[in-house]
Amino acid sequence: MKAEILVRRGVLAIAFAGLLAGGVYAQSPDPSAQQQDIKDDKKDIRNDKKDLAKDRADRNADQRDINHDRRDLNKDRVDRNADQRDINHDKTQLARDDKKYGVNSTQAQADRKDLHADRVDRNKDQRDINHDRRDLSKDRVDRNRDQRDINHDKRDLSKDRIDRNQDQKDINRDKKGLHKDRKDLRQDRRGHK
Q1: Are 184 and 20 in contact (CB under 8 A)?
Q2: Is 103 helix (H, G, I), strand (E, B) or coil?
Q3: Host domain of residue 159
């Protein structure tokens, strides 16, 4: 009877040890796969950092373009306003010369030429202003798009770091669990001898 009990206990101990060992290996994924996950996460982080740097460079270039276009726009407005003052001055001069010398006088004809040239300059400056405004608007769109890319890359970088940290925690937890299960298995083997 004692032999039968010993055999049963031995069989139960082996079965229990097998279950523990099987549970440990079923519970923890392949460590090399987890290490590969961490490597992939690190690679993603490096790529995200590169993308982030490129997007920042693009955004900064767009900001410089915006500043340049603003300066051009301001210069063109100054030119246009000066031309408008010239036009107003020439109109006044033409009216005086028409009154003083007559409509077909040499002075009146010269004033009309000046007035025409000033209007041409003013219209050219207005076209430049319109062009600079369009450029400024496009540059703002580009800058805003680049800023959105930067924000997106930052989110990706943060997610990749979280993934990497979680993978490392999983590895550490699995290592502790595996170590504990092996220790328990050794104790069970010693206790059943």
Answers
A1: yes
A2: coil
A3: 2-191
